[in-house]
Write a structure and sequence with these properties.
Elements lengths: L5 H25 L10 H4 L7 H21 L5 H16 L12 H20 L13 H24 L3 H41 L1
Helix pairs in contact: 1-3, 1-7, 3-4, 4-5, 5-6, 6-7
Length: 207
């Protein structure tokens, strides 16, 4: 059985690309009214904002990418795939619970927190303890990846508390979360190819 389905080869690298293009487009539409250093991405998706539909579409697209990658990443453990899918679903649900134009929103914050936690935990939950596991799914790699994401969350929390570079911290954090599935998929593809090579060589010798 293939370690990764073909559609995950498309969906996994698309997630970070769509995310970055989405927030850059939204920021461009908002112009000088938006500060990407001190304001979060959610501000761009707030009701009444110029980039509302752009960011809402971006969140739905990125969430769909997570769902497809979770479905196609067969080498990962089922709990990890389920967590990634849950994170993707949370991203899609943000379209139903956008941030308000001013002030906070409990439903929005709750969905964001759940989505982040699931995407931060999936590397650990999806790890593969076998000796020949792809590098991206090995326990040490998975724990390191998850730990770094939580460190990024701590940075974001500090910036949010102090009113500092919240936007920078959030972009770094969400980009890392979106990139990691693509890295794991890449290592699974490399592992699959290395496993197929001995068989190919045997066929060549037999002919």
């Amino acid at each position: 059985m293939r370690l990764v389905a073909w559609w995950a080869l498309v969906s996994s690298p698309c997630a970070p690309v769509v995310l970055v293009v989405g927030w850059e487009t939204g920021a461009t539409l908002e112009g000088s009214r938006y500060d990407p250093v001190t304001q979060t991405i959610s501000v761009l998706a707030a009701e009444g904002r110029t980039g509302y539909w752009v960011l809402t579409g971006t969140l739905v697209a990125v969430g769909t990418c997570y769902l497809l990658t979770a479905w196609g990443l067969r080498a990962a453990g089922p709990r990890g795939r389920l967590a990634m899918a849950g994170g993707g679903l949370a991203a899609i649900l943000l379209a139903l619970f956008p941030a308000p134009r001013s002030g906070g929103s409990l439903p929005h914050g709750f969905v964001v927190g759940i989505g982040f936690s699931l995407l931060a935990l999936w590397p650990v939950l999806g790890r593969d303890g076998r000796e020949n596991a792809p590098w991206g799914l090995r326990p040490a790699t998975s724990i390191t990846a998850s730990s770094l994401i939580w460190v990024g969350a701590l940075w974001f929390g500090i910036e949010l508390w102090t009113g500092g570079a919240v936007g920078v911290a959030e972009r770094a954090l969400t980009t890392a979360q979106a990139l990691w599935p693509a890295v794991v998929v890449g290592t699974c593809v490399a592992r699959q190819r290395s496993a197929e090579q001995p068989g190919e060589r045997s066929d060549e010798r037999a002919t």
